[in-house]
Amino acid sequence: MKHFLSLLDFSPDELYEWLDLAHRLKQEWQTGGNRPILQGKSLAMVFQKPSLRTRVSFEMGMVHLGGYAFYLSPLEIKMGGRESIPDVARVLSGYVDGIMARVFDHHHILQLAEYSRVPVINGLSDYNHPAQAFADLMTIQEHKGQLPGLKLAYVGDSNNVARSLLFGAMKMGMHFAAASPPGYTLSEEDIHLGQSIRASAWQQIELTENPREAVRGADIIYTDVWTSMGQEEETAQRLRIFPPYQINQELVSQANPDCIVMHCLPAHRGEEITDEVADGPHSVLFPQAENRLHAQKAILVRLLAPDYKG
Ligand code: CP
Ligand code: NVA
């Protein structure tokens, strides 16, 4: 039985195969609808944090494939509070065919997977956001045709999303640059891990404090909020530190002329990204958000219907 906890757990071939399936499921959906590959299958969606995209795209993904999904809010099961995480995993495993969870502590998603008898999907933890990065690889393929050799420049807080993008980029043969203020960079362990999974020795990982340096020659500029869920008490301090890392028109003009701008959303417009860029010609923000639906259908099919050959 497979879980979907980190892009580190998948080979490049596997990721390419899942991406191909995602593109096929998208085309199928847009030309008449998906076949009921997940008929009779159910997904429990456990959230310790808010969500728009993850919740709705997983739920609708299940519905489009003939399955059923239901939402368990932070207040409902109080995972780890009212009941231990191993017990939640053991109980849910008796009711459903898969569990998708969004948690604070990454160990909680690992613990869910350890004790679950059904596949567990990571819908974001403080450590990573693999479903987002997987969907982002799909969006990059759509807009750039291929992945190897492209340069992705991440600008801002080196958070869960940045970490999954680093791992995704390394697996798929891309260069990765990150510009973050001191104290908000990826860790040495992240970089070491990234280097250890590179598809090719020529792939670069650049870390800098200078956003203009990071975006030079970039095919993709990526940013995310400066304050992630769970860090709200640091908001004022972060608002003082991060303004030089805003994605604005001037910064975009330093990248390749045909670069795309990505953001996992939700965006704090006027902070990490200007309206002009978010709504401008380089932005792929909303096709990117839509692809969460298509990419996650591929994840759901491969985990909940492993014998499906399509
Ligand atoms: N990008 C993303 O995961 O959005 P939500 O937090 O709304 O799910
Ligand atoms: N880094 C953000 C991503 C939201 C999808 C957070 O964790 O809040």
Annotate the secondary structure layout.
Elements: H1 12-30, E1 42-47, H2 53-64, E2 68-72, H3 74-77, H4 85-93, E3 98-102, H5 106-115, E4 120-122, H6 130-144, E5 151-155, H7 160-171, E6 175-179, H8 188-196, E7 205-208, H9 211-215, E8 220-223, H10 235-241, H11 249-252, E9 260-263, H12 275-278, H13 285-304
Parallel strand pairs: 1-2, 1-3, 3-4, 5-6, 5-8, 6-7, 8-9
Description:
The chain has 310 residues and is an alpha/beta fold. Helix content is 42%, strand content 13%. It is built from 13 helices and nine strands. The chain has helices at residues 12-30, 53-64, 74-77, 85-93, 106-115, 130-144, 160-171, 188-196, 211-215, 235-241, 249-252, 275-278, 285-304, and strands at residues 42-47, 68-72, 98-102, 120-122, 151-155, 175-179, 205-208, 220-223, 260-263. The protein has a five-stranded parallel beta sheet. It has a four-stranded parallel beta sheet with strand order 2-1-3-4, with helices on both faces. β6 (175-179), α8 (188-196) and β7 form a beta-alpha-beta unit. α1 (12-30) crosses α13. The longest helix has 20 residues, at 285-304. The two termini are 19 Å apart. The model has no long low-confidence stretch (mean pLDDT 97). The structure holds phosphoric acid mono(formamide)ester (CP) and norvaline. Norvaline is lined by residues 124, 159-161, 224-225, 228-229, 264. Phosphoric acid mono(formamide)ester is lined by residues 51-54, 124, 132, 264-266.
